[in-house]
Amino acid sequence: MKTGDSIDIGNGKKLVFVEMRMLHWPDSMATYLTGDNILFSNDAFGQHFAVEELFNDKADQCMLWEEAIKYYANILTPFSPLVKKKIEEIQGLNLPIDIIATSHGSIWRENPLQIVEKYYEWSQNYKEDQITVVYDTMWDGTKQLAHKISAEIARISPNTRVKIYNISKTNKNDIMTKVFKSKAIALGSPTVYGSILSSVGGWLEFLKELKYKDKKAAVFGCYGWGGEGTKVLRERLTDAGFMVVDAEAKSLWNPEEADFQNAEEIARALCQ
Ligand SMILES: Cc1cc2nc3c(=O)[nH]c(=O)nc-3n(C[C@H](O)[C@H](O)[C@H](O)COP(=O)(O)O)c2cc1C
């Protein structure tokens, strides 16, 4: 089967097939039912979310949209170029769509194309005026820097939404959704055995897999002697495709005045 192939199912209705290779599995396909104008979209446009009344217009809108973007941010971003191409291809088929029934999540029956439009937007290096600060710490020194950076962003750019998370205390998918929406992030870890905390290292591995594009980043963290942590963060964020700014806050033991000034420099560089 390839895109546009169809089979007759009686009553004058047909199933039309649309190839969706790697969205997000190699064998993914969508199926369109003529007459009823239903697009069975497989994983696309879905959520990891159950709506008791089944339909998008019955769902709590805040939860539905948060779950929809969370699904996109955590599952589909590596395939964003394919998403954009596929949407253009489906639009090119000129099929009237009254319902989008995904394989998991709510069924889109009220203005079903709204989720298609959102996917199109999300597939193109999406970002809002938001900055997310992410860190872990052993004795709260790195946390102090994180909070100073957040406070400075809020002071320098009051319209920018600032989010702050301790990696060990928040669901990693929720943090990733905030990063997806952000134009920049600041990432902090104390130095541990010449590197970074494994919680931050694991999260960075996930971040790299998601292939976010066109976002700035800054690094910070406390240390006791060698202080290799910020260098490791810098290298790994660059490897994950982030544009890492020069400003950084690297504090010997707990932060002092000069370190807080560096935190201010980070905020300034990320807001530019
Ligand atoms: C197990 C362990 C290993 C550490 N390894 C290093 C190291 O290799 N290099 C270094 O500069 N500091 C090292 N430190 C010191 C911490 O980076 C330092 O105490 C820092 O201030 C902790 O920051 P926090 O308050 O954010 O947890 C280590 C600390 C611990 C507990």
UniProtKB/TrEMBL annotation:
Pfam families listed in its UniProt record: Flavodoxin_1 (PF00258), ODP (PF19583)
Record Gene3D superfamilies: 3.40.50.360, Ribonuclease Z/Hydroxyacylglutathione hydrolase-like
SUPFAM superfamilies: Flavoproteins (SSF52218), Metallo-hydrolase/oxidoreductase (SSF56281)
GO molecular function: FMN binding; oxidoreductase activity, acting on NAD(P)H
Domain of life: Bacteria
Domain Flavodoxin-like intervals: 131-271
Protein name: Flavodoxin-like domain-containing protein
Organism: Anaeromicropila herbilytica
